[in-house]
Request: fold
Amino acid sequence: MNRSPLVNILDRPLGKGGATRSTTTTDQSVSLSSFAYLYSEMVQYHQNRVDSISELERRLEATGYSVGLRVLELLAYRAREYKRETRLMNILQFVSTTVWKSLFGKAADSLERSIDHADEFMIVDYAPITSTFVSVPSDFGGLSVDAYLSGIIAGILEGAGFPARVTAHSVSLEEGETPSSISSVVVLPPRKEKTVFLVKFAPTVLTRDNAMG
Reply:
């Protein structure tokens, strides 16, 4: 009897880019409803074990951090000819495009550099799935459920040798700012905020990058 060769789990397809908006998809993406349920359960799990919103965010970041380390390892393995990034802008482009497409099916909406601080960069997403499809109770109004994604970014950067503090911030959309990346498959009330992931690199990262010219 012929048997098909076993495929290493690391060689299996990622699917067509992260969580899908459909619950009846035939590809290998994780359904959005499944992700939303599991993520809300994880938030509640940590919520029952903390005494403050800030502590809850730190736990979400820590959970995401371990995921980020594994995402970097997985993408590097599958790239086969992966070349370790040594320049600051290159690793940020990698996160905002390659990583984002692998996890969410699209690139981040923008990558910006702070005008006031040379060590700060911003990755902008108009509709991160952690806050678009997960509601926050009114008494937790200050909670950023996107802290989980902050942890993923921090884990990837740390694993690549670019230690940084990453935080998620909700920023009101400016007048006339119309996000074009939000899927129209699911009908939702228009978002009034975007999420900005603020990346603040350790001083050693900038020193090394400047030395490389």
Q: What stands out?
A: Helices lie at 32-47, 53-79, 88-104, 129-132, 147-159, 203-211. The chain is about 40% helix and 15% strand.
